[in-house]
UniProtKB/TrEMBL annotation, chain A:
Membrane topology: Peripheral membrane protein
PANTHER family: ENERGY-COUPLING FACTOR TRANSPORTER ATP-BINDING PROTEIN ECFA2, HEAVY METAL TRANSPORTER
Spans traversing the lipid bilayer: none
GO cellular component, one term: ATP-binding cassette (ABC) transporter complex
Protein name from the UniProt record: ATP-binding cassette domain-containing protein
Keyword annotations of the record: ATP-binding, Cell membrane, Membrane, Nucleotide-binding, Translocase, Transport
Keyword Mitochondrion: no
Originating organism: Paenibacillus dendrobii
One Pfam family this sequence matches: ABC_tran
Residue ranges of domain ABC transporter in the record: 3-246
Amino acid sequence: MGIQLEHVSYTYDARSPLRQTALRDVELDLAEGALTGIAGSSGSGKSTLLQLLNGILLPTEGSVKVLDVRLNAGEKLPKLAPLRKRVGLVFQFPEQQLFARTLEEDLVFGPLNFGASPEEAAASARKALEAMGLEESLLGRHPLQLSGGQRRKAAIASVLAMEPDILVLDEPGATLDQVSRTELIRLLHRLCKEEGKTVIIVTHRLDELLPYADRWIIMHDGRPVFQGAARGLVDTAAKLPDYGLSVPLSIRCWHELETAYGLQAEEPCLSPAALAERAMQLMEADARKELNLCVKSC
Amino acid sequence: MNRVKTRPPNGRSAVGNQVNFTAAGGKEHVAARMAEQTDMVLLDNVSFAYDGQHEDIKNVCLAIGRGEWVTLAGANGCGKSTLIRLMNGLLRARCGCISIGGVRLESGTVGVIRQKVGMVFQNPDNQFIGATVEEDMAFGLEGMCLGAEEIGSRITRYAMRLGISGLLHRHPQELSGGQKQRAALAAILAMEPELIILDEASSMLDEKARGEMLELLREMHREERYTLLSITHDAEEIAASQRVLVMDRGRLTADLAPRELFRNGDLLRLCRMELPFRLQLAQELEKRGIPPVPEGDPAGTAAYPVTEVMRKWAFNWSM
């Protein structure tokens, strides 16, 4: 089923002189059970796109289909609670979604709201807290008394606690320390691969997500200008600067290796370890070839 | 004036680069500088507890010279944002002494000090006041009692510098996250404060905008009129600064040059930092017996000869 956007446009303040179109005639298909990365410069429509996925924003034109729910522009809304139970959205700023008196209340709010018993909700909350590496001693704190990074982890945990089928995260790694960012990406990757969750992540740091993402969407000026796997992104990387993005270092290194060894259409290795391993294999194969040539000519 | 080159390596212990800021030497040094009153930031034995009991900031002594560019690093929740909020009186220290630009922070001097300190927060929504970006920029300038012409000229100048000229008539809430952060920074820069404190101000920016902001910081540093203190997890931003302060559980635990931090595995772990991509790749290659090609020496050294095979992809690992 997945997620399909058909001719979707979204305009803020559509009926006022301040109208501003954030998405233009978007056609998108997001596969279920995949980890999709979305990138694009500031103002390209990424956050607007995400908010269409659980009905926080409704399309001003076109149709959004998420799982078995269809949201058509201008039509009466279906009940959104079942959709919101299945699609968990982590906002760009954690302050926008933390509202309870304590972190614990915030974490159990979602599960309770969707019908879990207090015991089940507490268990989900603790599991999410642990997954995000937050200490239990923070449970009694007011969410806004947490540090910026802890607050962001808390916001992510509050969505994880609801155990949605589709996890949608807007810049989840911003303001986290680097190790926490890597841990978060690995956690989301694991949830996707082991528990079959659909994960959609907006990121400004392509390098970090490239080794994990199954698919990429590049947004520019309210439209997806690229949709596809990492291989396709590697092939079209030269265009990224036109979309206000710089070419990720891992792609630049892979290009260097491709040129040096004349590789063609090979699945790219984009983590430092994978890149080094592939380079090593190529060097060894070259050395063997030279040795064979040497033996033959002798 | 840029005093950086003449600064003594204040407070550093003889053992490596780790610093015990509570050591008597460090304290005396800060006390002596308190008397001088020439530094931009002076903290003497500052402690703070949100709940009044458990200290979140513990006995911090720190001196930052005028014109310096300092980054503040550390794991999430170690007290970085708390520390900087003490510097302009947003939080009040439980004990210790804080002095900014030669003025001691007291209840009567908070106003003067806030004119000297421009702060850009993690979440730009926390600092928008105006109904448009232009009004928001004008708000601070009107508060400084500047003339209309000067206000107009500063808004134009700094909006252009931050690439938000086209957004001046928009409501801050209509902007994307990255645009908001640039608008917040523009409003602060327009006030031309002496000390600019950035609390992960580039965290929401895309890579290109982050690069542009780094260039802006470099430019500002070259102008020598700003002291820059930036909280960041960004390896490149740390590398571009002159000095890194490392915090751990409310204490300052190291004060060193960025390149020293990147060579210190223990400190990197403490800050929960990872090496920049190129250095990670270089490490992975070295693990597999492929040494980096030494700069300016394509043939390698006797210890690490570069073979023909390796030279096919002479990965340049320098940053």
